[in-house]
Amino acid sequence: MYDLERLFDDHDIEYWTKGKNVSKGWTNIQCPFCNDKSNHLGVNINTGAYNCWKCSSSGELSFLISELLSIEEYKSKKLIKKYREDFIEVKKEKRVVSNTELILPKEATNILPEKHRQYLIGRGFDPDYIQKKYGIMACDILGDYKFRIIIPIFFKGRLVNFAAKAIDDSANLKIKNCPNEKVVIQRDSLLYNIDNIKNRKAIIVEGFTDVWKMGDCAVATMGTKFTNAQIQLLSDYCSEAYILYDSKEKDPQALIQAEKLAHSLYSLIKKVEILELPHGDPGDLTYSEVENIKKEIGII
Ligand SMILES: [Zn+2]
User: Fold this and answer.
1) CATH number of the domain bearing residue 53
2) For the whole model, what pTM was predicted?
3) How many distinct structural domains can be found in the chain?
4) Residue 118 is part of a domain; what is its CATH number?
5) pLDDT digits (tens, 9 = 90+) for 107-160
6) Ligand 1 centroid distance, CA of 66 (Å)
7) Domain range for 39
8) pLDDT confidence tier of residue 90, bands split at 50, 70 and 90
9) Would you give the distance in Å from CA 17 to the centre of its chain?
10) Could you tell me the distance, in angstroms and rounded to a whole number, from the CA of residue 42 to the centre of ligand 1?
11) Where among 189, 217, 236 does a domain terminate?
């Protein structure tokens, strides 16, 4: 069953749901295939099949929409999917762009102090590699972000946001985010590391260190909560998605969130799988464990 009214409303197509020429269970529009001055083309709301009383053109909704909107049929197929009643609505949220340039904290330096380096080494990372690959910086003993690693967030190669991760795991606020009034794109419209998706395959993880461990193809929702804008972004960038959240043992909510995310992606992405970890989080994996996971899902 299609929500034809919403489909036509959203694309400024005039329609009739009753009156002249309109049968029950059909929505009518002006036929684009003949010299129709009225509303002779009916679309069946259950099947999407159309039929013109005047010129007898008939076919499927995807073809009709591709004609009406002058778009290719594969695009039209993707579009009309969103108007099926069994589809969970994903509205394209506007990426809120307020600033044209992101300013990193003025205390941030490229030289990682020893305690920052030790923190990374303690988590199984090579500080020099992580810095080179992800452009991390450090705030040492001064400022709002002291004792934190500054994590730049890029989108299409452009610096658009940042987060600051405490190097003390007992810190109250483990991740301190750039205030929204200073960002170029808000965090909830972004996925960390999206620029490094390869071959339209993504491993979706929760946090920054998970991405650092999983490497290319890993993107982080930056928390287990996700937004419609992130779902949209994922469907634009990948055809296969593997969700790798923290283990049940570490976070009992993680699997529930993973299932919600999978559910939102099913109708938009060809393949969606949830990968479950027996314990810990992806950041705790060894590099050979990471390699095995990636091999298994055909990402390497
Ligand atoms: Zn016609």
Assistant:
1) 3.90.580.10
2) 0.68
3) 3
4) 3.90.980.10
5) 999 999 999 999 999 999 999 999 999 999 999 999 999 999 999 999 999 999
6) 16
7) 4-81
8) very low
9) 35
10) 10
11) 189
